[in-house]
Specification:
This protein is α/β, with parallel strands linked by helices. The chain has two domains: about 230 residues, Malonyl-Coenzyme A Acyl Carrier Protein, domain 2, CATH 3.40.366.10; about 60 residues, Malonyl-CoA ACP transacylase, ACP-binding (Alpha-Beta Plaits, 2-Layer Sandwich).
Length: about 325
Amino acid sequence: MSRVAWVFPGQGCQYPGMGKQLYDNYAVARETFETADEVLGFRLSELIFSGPADELILTHNAQPAILVVSVACARVLRSLGLRPHMVAGFSLGEYTALVVAESLAFEDAVALTRRRGLYMQEACPPGTGSMAAVMGMAYAELEAICFAASKHGVVTSANYNCPGQIVISGETNAVAHVCKTVAERGGRTVPIPVSAPFHSPLMEPAARKLQADLERIQIRPPSVPVYTNVTGKTVSCPQEIKQTLVRQVTSPVLWQVAVENMIGDGASLFIEVGPGKALSGFGRRIDPKIPFVKFGTPEDLDDVLDSHKEAWLE
């Protein structure tokens, strides 16, 4: 029997209207949005469905919003009898993975990601930090460019997405210098639509605050393997999970390593659960032989069901 991996997106995939069709068509999705609204004490669902986009992109809004939409997607799949054999989430998506693996309560995850976003934004006010994807540049060469640009401010590799793509993060001026040098050397850069420089040393104040919050939260051993961003390997001890979530804030996301490890452990079908399709794109570059299918709207369901049906149904 095939083994199915569910993977969950991180910040940058948000857009007004995401999840609305699921809300309209599935009671389990509607309940998910309503629960989040109750936890936060305001209509997050209204911001998700109607925007404005410049409010939704703010870290403290985008993080719980993407979590809620992704969990709603996962609950729709579960309501249809579908289950993952293993899970992973990209940055913020790791919280979704822990919810789906029954390690972290959904209500706690909603509150945590809201505060995580606030802490990250407080650590680096809007406009002072940024991120950019770098394509067509060897790892060693990019590291040397970042080192040279560090005289202009903090800048470091933050996400190892797939072969040929690394994301950098840091102070806006330093990131701009790296992008300029990459272009001069024949590479390409694309700005990432986030409002803080995630996975960089600039997030250390946020990590300290998040650690205090996590100590008050109950984490249980996950029901399925969860592959972490910090190492790309599984973690099951509740205290170790908390430590990884703290380290994740300032550490690079080893996404390619995590996906390769999941494939090595038998994953033969990946479902990207939540808004966007970036993880599917990364996956096809990591291993073109492995199918990646996305599920973020009801229209995606046929593709999900058609992909190795015997791997899904219990």
